[in-house]
Amino acid sequence: MLYFVFSIFLSFIFVLLVTKKAYRLGLLDVPNERSHHRNIIPSGGGVGFVSALFVSLALFQTELLIEHWYLFTSIFMVFVVGILDDRHDVSPRLKFLVIFFAVFLLWIFEISIYSMGTFFGFELSLGWLALSFSMFAVAGLTNALNLIDGIDGLAGSVSIVIIAFFAYIGYENANLLILTLSLSTIAVLCGFLLLNWNPAKVFMGDSGSLTLGFIISILAVLSVEHIHPVTTLYLTALPVLDTLVVMVRRIRRGHSPFRADKTHIHHIMVKFFDDNVKRTVIFLILLQMSFSSIGYLLNILISQNSNGLMSVFSLFNFAIVFVLSYMVFTGIKKRQNKLDNVDL
């Protein structure tokens, strides 16, 4: 309990210090056509809470930090490239290369996705594809979390929900690494959200969103030792669905799937709630809580079903959720565009 409270306090202090020094450090978010804010806001929140995470672990979880040095080294690598991106706009290629190398480091120490789980009674082992699939999955989920960091408090709040379920999985299976990393990350996020909740005094920036996305990815990879891999789709549903829906919509329009725009779920919902950011964030938090709860319940059913049919149902069900999400959010966006044209 003391460790948790200390981590919250330390994160708050570190984020506050970075906020005050943001102009000198060059960690600023200048509004553009996609921004929801109108003023220049410090964007070094990630520097503060990730630094607090490492300091807290070093002080209270020294043995764990030393034992799993390769894991925390990989997190630090992504953190550094995030800081560089906040200051100098690093190319997407370099960011992906760093993430791939971090995943490779973990693979050397046997932290990777080796199986897709059991379907129809047969285990889908990845074999020599384990490394490449893990790179793709981790890079995709890391980027997905980065993409939902678009309005005050959203990425941090949704991440707490996601990580809380991983923490329970760690507790339930006596996995100290998953439990400690989860609770430590939740603690520093709580400290950060005290300054990031609407109206935000600081943003997490790429140093925060990339590192946070990578930590969630690692927790997902570590958790597949205890849960069916398809369950992780539900535990991380909001960022995953948002990324898939947006990319499919862009491809269907003939645009690059990586083209930046204002068609993310949070953009659509904040307009739906008449620019009320707090209502939007609370709605999306509840949505992620629902997905995570469904995923956890499905995992229980999968573990009780030896022939693998429940895992097939879970995967098929997620595909249906994706299609419905695409139809609903695309429909809302089209209606909003029509109303905007009428107003003009």
Main sheet: which strands, in order across? 1-2
**Domain tally:** 1
Number of strands: 4
| Global mean pLDDT | 91
Write the layout of secondary structure elements.
Blueprint: H1 2-20, H2 22-25, E1 28-29, E2 41-42, H3 45-60, H4 62-67, H5 69-88, H6 92-108, E3 115-119, E4 122-125, H7 130-147, H8 154-172, H9 176-196, H10 205-223, H11 231-235, H12 237-252, H13 265-272, H14 277-304, H15 309-343
Antiparallel strand pairs: 1-2, 3-4
Helix pairs in contact: 1-3, 1-9, 3-9, 3-10, 5-6, 5-10, 6-7, 7-10, 7-12, 8-9, 8-10, 8-14, 9-10, 12-15, 13-14, 13-15, 14-15
Structure in a nutshell:
With 344 residues, this protein is mainly alpha-helical.
How does this structure look, described?
It is a single chain. The chain is mainly α. It has one domain. It contains 15 helices and 4 strands. The chain has helices spanning 2-20, 22-25, 45-60, 62-67, 69-88, 92-108, 130-147, 154-172, 176-196, 205-223, 231-235, 237-252, 265-272, 277-304, 309-343; strands at residues 28-29, 41-42, 115-119, 122-125. The chain has a two-stranded antiparallel ribbon with strand order 1-2. Strands 3-4 form a two-stranded antiparallel ribbon. α1 packs antiparallel against α3. The chain is globular, with a radius of gyration of 20 Å. The N and C termini lie far apart (55 Å).
What characteristics describe this protein?
single chain, mainly alpha, two-stranded antiparallel ribbon, 4 strands
